[in-house]
Amino acid sequence: MVNKVSFPRAKMNIVLLEGIHPAAVELFHERGYSPKLISTAWQKDELLAAISDIHILGIRSRTEIPSDVLAKTKRLLSVGCFCIGTNQVDLRAAEMNGIPVFNAPFSNTRSVAELAMAEIIMLARKAAWKSQRMHQGVWDKSADGCCEIRHKVLGIIGYGHIGQQIGILAESFGMKVIYYDILRKLPLGIAQTVESINDLLKASDFVTLHVPETPETKGMIGSKELSKMKQGAVLLNLSRGTVVDIAALAEALRNGHLAGAALDVYPIEPGSNKDEFVSELRGIPNVLLTPHIGGSTEEAQKNIGLEVANSLLDFIETGATEGAVNFPKVALAIVEGNHRILNIHKNVPGVLGSINNIMAEVGANISAQYLSTTAEIGYLIMDINVDVSREVTQRIESLETSIKTRLLF
Ligand SMILES: NC(=O)c1ccc[n+]([C@@H]2O[C@H](COP(=O)([O-])OP(=O)(O)OC[C@H]3O[C@@H](n4cnc5c(N)ncnc54)[C@H](O)[C@@H]3O)[C@@H](O)[C@H]2O)c1
Fold first, then answer.
1. What gap in Å lies between CA 77 and CA 383, rounded to an integer?
2. What is the pLDDT of residue 2?
3. Ligand 1 center from residue 298 Cα (angstroms)
4. For residue range 371-385, what is the model confidence (pLDDT) as tens digits?
């Protein structure tokens, strides 16, 4: 139950840049806040001019928040990145300033899964390629090399949010689903795990990649792996561009070992819509190329808006930091009749002892206390009796180790 906030909601200065989705804006209004909406990104000078008065800042990918901007924050409680990535924020500097940063990494899961399913069928029927040829005036009516996907084996590498959704969708199309993941993942539906990538490559008619970009996944699918795939199999990569060796894939497609491929991500992607897309895969038959649009849907944008707005509201009103990318994860249910103190401090020995001494000296009654730490900072939530909460907050705030302290009532 979210119901506490010490600072008047109407006076909280919430600034949402870069045209954040209306669903997020509506949520803030419903909860009694009046965010300022700005459709563009802010440059550094604009941020520096405004940042000291902002309590909550919402951005997307085009506003950079470096350490010298974060050093100028006085009131900033949190930054919401209404997108997937958080590279645009200096996360460590934010952490050291006691500012949790939230994003929405899984809001576009369904969008990616749907595109992958559509592509599996388009490739099985050579439909995209035939469509391209129709535009050139070629009528190529033939069943050669075209198949249904029912009873075919789909091999999923990386059985996380997206991989699992695809598994469920593929089963409802009648496919047999196998998967490989470095972590032991419980199967959904009747999917079966396999022991190695090689086992998966050998058994699959369609292989789809849904791994993150890590040192282990870089070049994970090269000529050796492609040669292990079935003759006439199909490869999809909607994960990260560095996972597949493009030259090796182009060769496997040209020499006919693979019957097709779909790619949404590339080792080097054009910086803007004005730049040319350069790739060895251009012009190869039955290769479906999309410009990194796996997660680009109206629904995903709305989900991102709602997820980040909810994370920010939970943090403002309860102190919860679940979903923060740079912060200790803390969430404690609100119990009525108490005041809540939130204290972010340097993670050095003796902090909890000093805080508990203060509690003992003022005779505070702690009804709940939760501490979580990173190597650099600690984050403490405490629910205490209302009559001493202000005094305790002031005394904790004045400890040398404290970075930020808030009282919710
Ligand atoms: N095309 C797009 O627009 C788009 C949109 C969203 C996500 N993505 C990308 O899709 C990928 C998957 O996203 P997700 O949300 O499912 O992530 P996730 O974290 O939920 O799942 C990734 C899975 O890969 C597994 N994994 C990690 N390393 C592995 C390895 N070496 N071998 C096998 N499995 C491994 C993990 O254990 C995890 O289960 C990410 O790279 C993400 O960036 C692309």
1. 20
2. 54
3. 21
4. 999 999 999 999 999
For ligand 1, pick from 156, 180, 209, 211 the residue to mutate: most ligand atoms within 8 Å of CB.
211
> At residue 57, what are phi and psi to the nearest 5 degrees?
-120, 125
pTM of the entire predicted model: 0.88
Is 114 near ligand 1, meaning CB less than 6 Å away? no
HEC per residue, 101-132: EECCCCCCHHHHHHHHHHHHHHHHCCHHHHHH
CA of 308 to the centre of ligand 1 (A): 20
Domains of the chain: 1-108+298-327 (3.40.50.720), 109-289 (3.40.50.720), 328-409 (3.30.70.260)
DSSP 333: -
Q: Coil, strand or helix: which one is 220?
A: coil
**Residue 6 to residue 408: CA distance in whole angstroms:** 5
Q: Decide if 204 contacts 177 (C-beta within 8 A).
A: no
Residue 95, SS3 per DSSP: helix
C-alpha distances (whole Å) from 120 to each of 116, 132, 158, 218, 289 are 6, 17, 17, 24, 13
- In angstroms, the CA 316 to CA 56 distance is 9
CA 64 – ligand 1 centroid, Å: 25
pLDDT tens by residue, 110-129? 999 999 999 999 999 999 99
Q: For helices 109-124 and 127-135, what crossing angle results, to 10°?
A: 70
What is the C-alpha to C-alpha distance for residues 116 and 36, in angstroms, rounded to an integer? 38
**Cβ contacts of residue 131 below 8 Å, gap of 6+?**
none
**246 Rama sector, left if φ>0, alpha if ψ -120 to 50, beta otherwise:** alpha
Residues 6+ apart with CB under 8 A from 240: 211, 212, 213, 217, 265
Give the number of other Cβ atoms within 10 Å of residue 359's Cβ: 20
Q: How far is CA 48 from CA 87, 206, 213, 223, in A?
A: 19, 51, 33, 50
